[in-house]
Amino acid sequence: MQIGVVFPQTEIGGDVGAVxxxxxxxEELGFRHLMAYDHILGADPAxxxxxxxxxxxxxxxxxxxxxxxxLAALTSLELVTAIIILPQRQTVLVAKQxxxxxxxxxxxxRLGVGLGWNAVEYEALGQxxxxxxxRVEEQxxxxxxxxxxxxxxxxxxxxRVTGAGxxxxxxxxxxxxxxxxxxxxxxxxxxxxADGWFPQMPPGPKLDEAKAMxxxxxxxxxxxxxVLGMEGRASWTGSAEELDDLARRWREAGATHLAVNTMKxxxxxxxxxxAALATAAETLELxxx
Length: 289
What we know:
By secondary structure, this protein is an alpha/beta fold. Helices cover 40% and strands 18% of the residues.
């Protein structure tokens, strides 16, 4: 099981030195990948007075693709979006950005995608919130062709490309695409189309049920479910014993990857995040991994 970290988007702020220190620090501790969440805009609760979203205009978010272009030169970590809200973005532009990050990182990009929940962002980006589920499947098909063919012609419902292609192509052809999933429809979509998926629940009966749906959909699509990756998440609570137990449960559940998340754990500085992750690294015996 490969173990990485969740980049503390909402707490790291705008200090570029802190971004660099964090990324290089987690690599030195033995973590293998860095996962970044994605939000382009935050809604202002003073305007959206019924706002119930997890994040708002006060929460900081570095744009993942630009962030990864920077980190590609500073670390050898695998760089993971978890998740890019794909249907609110232009498909060809995402394919180009992903190809460039993959090239600059020498093949270390894993592109996690999902549908998102923030209608305010969709409006601001000029995309249709109601068709996002249908659109994402077409987007995956188009991106994979762009990453593997020099010139393509594609006539879809939402995107059209006529005799064009990306140059340079990425190192990984195609770049692995993982899905965020937290509904039966999303589980089946992941099974049919994804290279891996990010469950939104801890190990237990609900995860077993979701995993069964992913694997059944893979079989029905003529795919081998054993090759699909699954990345769990472990939030830091301050207890090494709890982390060790949760990591064991994820491993037993069949997770191929695990990300340790220190956001919202009461940590105020990069040094505090790294201190917690140092304990996590020792607990999980990363130096021996």
